[in-house]
Amino acid sequence: MVHGRRDGNDVVVPYDHPLYAGFVGGFSHPAAFHALKASDLILSVGIRLGCGEAFRLHTY
Predict the structure, then answer these.
(1) Is 13 helix (H, G, I), strand (E, B) or coil?
(2) CA angle, corner 13, sides to 12 and 16, nearest 5?
(3) What is the pTM of this model?
(4) Which structural domain range is residue 13 located in?
(5) Which helix or strand (DSSP H or E) is residue 36 part of?
(6) Mean pLDDT split into 10-residue runs, the chain, 60 residues
(7) CB-based contacts of 1: which residues, under 8 Å, 6+ apart?
(8) What is the DSSP letter of 28?
(9) How many domains does the chain have?
(10) Which residues of 22-51 are buried (b: 16+ CB within 10 A; e: fewer)?
């Protein structure tokens, strides 16, 4: 039996199913949620560093 949480529409989200790693509103798999947060942090830092470097190379 797959355990899950119910959303507001009585849909069971199978967060402990081995093939489930997706996002369903606030009911996302914890591992997928933490991986997304880490990748967002890395991407945002990279964009900030890259934009500054591109501006410096373009203006000098």
Answers:
(1) strand
(2) 120
(3) 0.36
(4) 5-59
(5) helix 30-59
(6) 51 58 58 75 76 67
(7) none
(8) -
(9) 1
(10) eeeeebbbeeeeeeeeeeeeeeeeeeeeee
